[in-house]
Amino acid sequence: MSEFRGFPGGQLDFTPLPNLFFSELLPQIDDLAELKVTLHVLWLVSRKRDAQAYVTLAELKGDQLLLRSLRAAGPSGVEALEAGLERAVARGTLLRLAQAEPNSEHLYFVNSSRGRQAVDKALMGELPLPAGGAAVQPATPVERPNIFVLYEQNIGLLQPMIAEELRDAETEYPQEWIEEAFRIAAEHNVRNWKYVRRVLERRAQDGKNEGTKREKTWYTEEEYEKYVKH
Question: Phi and psi (nearest 5°) for 96?
C-alpha cells in the first residue's frame, strides 16, 4: 500500500458533489469499479462547460489516471472501466448516448439537471457532438425515488437512518399524497419528517373531504397546535 502524504496547505480546487451522493447513492454502490468510474466522471464533467457536459468513451479509455486506478478493480483497467460504466448507467447515475453511425462514440452524462438538459439538447441537435452523426435515444435510467428529492428540497440533508422510513412511505402512500404532504409542511414552515408523516397518516385515515378546511382534513387540531403554531 502506497502512503498518501495528505492534502497540501494553501488554496485547493474542489469538486462539488450533491449531498444525495453521500446519503443515497453511496450506500447503494457495492462495486469498486462503479464507484471509481462514477467519481471520476463527476470530476471530469464538473470541469467542463455546459456546451460539453459529457465525457466520451474514448476520453475515458485514454485517461491513464483512471485506468491506473481501476487496475485494482478488474482484470484490466479497460475491462473494469466498461463494467463500471455499465453498472453506473443501469443504476441511473450516468446517462449514455450512442451515436447513430456504427462503431461511433458513446457519450456519458451525469444524471443531474444539467446533464438531462444536455441530453435533450443533443437529441434536438443543439449540442456540439464529436463526429459520428446524431445521437439516438439514451437507455432509460433507473429512476431514483422521488421522495428523497422532496425530502432534501423541503427539509434538508437526508440522513441514512431515515432513508428506509422514506422508502416505506413511498410504497405505502400514493405519489400525489407525498408531494402534497411536503408542500403543506413547507407552506406552514414545518420542515421535519415527523410532521410530513403525520400528514400522510391523517390523509390515509380520513381521506381528503371536499369543502373541508385542509387543517381539519390533513392533521388534527392538536397536531396543528404542536407542529404548525409552535
Answer: -120, 135
Number of structural domains (the chain) is 2
| Angle between helix 160-172 and 146-154 (nearest 10) | 120
161: domain CATH number?
1.10.10
Nearest-angstrom CA–CA distance, 126 and 120: 8
DSSP 8-class letter at 72: G
Q: 42-97 pLDDT, tens per residue?
A: 999 998 887 788 999 999 999 999 999 998 766 688 988 999 999 999 889 999 98
Q: Does one domain contain both 24 and 113? A: yes
pTM of the model: 0.59
Spatial contact of 45 and 107, defined as CB atoms under 8 Å apart = no
Per residue in 186-227, pLDDT tens?
888 888 898 999 999 988 887 644 434 444 444 544 555 555
